[in-house]
Write the structure tokens for this entry.
Amino acid sequence: MKYVYKFAEGSGSMRELLGGKGANLAEMTNLNLPVPQGFTVTTEACERYYQDDGIVAADVREQIMEYLAWLEQTTGKTFGGADSSRAAPLLVSVRSGSRASMPGMMDTILNLGMNDAVAEGMSRLTGNPRFVYDSYRRFIQMFSDVVMELPKHRFEVIIDALKHEKGVKHDTELDVDDMKTLVAQFKAFYRENKGADFPQEPRDQLMAAVAAVFRSWNNPRAIVYRRENDIPGNWGTAVNVQSMVFGNIADGKSGTGVAFSRNPSTGENKLYGEFLMNAQGEDVVAGIRTPQTIDQLSDVMPEVYGQFTAIVDTLENHYKDMQDMEFTIESGKLYMLQTRNGKRTAQAALQIAIDMVNEGVWSKDDALMKVEPKQLDSLLHPAFEPKALKAAVPVSHGLPASPGAACGRICFTAEQAKAGAKSYKIVYSVTKPKKRALFTIECNAKKWQVKANLFRISGYQDMVQESSGKIRESIKATRACTPCNPGCKGRASYEIDGETMLPCYGGGHYFKGLSAGDWGRLEELISLESRA
């Protein structure tokens, strides 16, 4: 049985076998769009994995190695190659992709194939060791989290300690020696917790990652999401192995971004998205640094922007629907990493349906079928009285990621929200609460892991977050049909002690102590009604 397909061997009609991401990568490849080469391990291989009690079968492994050899030949790079005088090392990303879109549910690993020898070889080849060791520390963190179940946030503690020591705020301010220090500290942390050295054999890394993606199909987030969205549990997930392109080279011509062909909140027929220069993976949606809006790309890299807008038009015309896309720019060259039909709010769904009919893309019957019945409920979201909102005392402000207003009891953890769903209605989430820890609104947003909390709870009326990215929360809140205000910023800092949040202004004056179970209106926490 054939378990592995090159992107060029697949098509958009093979969604059940290749998963949504694999099918769309195949379709973009066949449209001659700039897609990094790669291959897909099918959903049937995932089914076989569970039939074989959690073991990747020998024939599946053989096919993966066969296609890996093809990828080496196609790219002219060597997987695990450390001798830069012969060929550049091949690094790959490993991503899941079920047939139903499940954003944020599955796990991703970037820069796989990196080890000590490869890092040294790449440093000699590129002359940019800072970029190489930045990629290496990212890989150790992702692999440890996804494959070995060492929580990502524990590595963030190490990063934050080094940044504090160096007196810097952003990861991009760390130099090459700092990155080498992080790699050494990450490996030491891994050894301390796992009792073994971090794996150095790239093919072992790859097979462990494939198995981890298969396992992630049944992680708690995925199970809850499937149950809430009526996705059968026996579908399984495919695995996409793709040659890496790098947005974190720090050459002024590299970056990464996400975009929608139309506004997913309002439906406006205008390109909507964000990008970050010198970034990789989820940096753009993680709130680590403030991203730039996608239209600003026309000022930063006008040629790339022109190429990207042309691709957006091609994809929307091809799929005949609003598209949600991910891209990376490596040294001035644009690569498309993903496209899919974009999720949207009810307001956006109605506006897009009307526009698509007027544009002659959809019939009226098609347009009606594109609006999900449960989306109509969100059209009835409550809103604040304008006079009351205007009179409210601002505490902080955030990004309007989804529509609606809310009032209810306050809670600070997913557990509280789940236990008291009928009474706890406003969920205020800080990045990583510690006893007696002081958090400022401007603190490192990278600590926040929204996927660890949001899909474990339901029944809340609003999610007010200390930090996160607008694009990501727009997607998640659209699915949950609830208001969401990520990236809250302002003068206030918050002292967390058990179940109490104390917003504190300059000079030590406490505005109000908010405890779990308190009744509060959204404007007491955030003075901006979400109008996205």
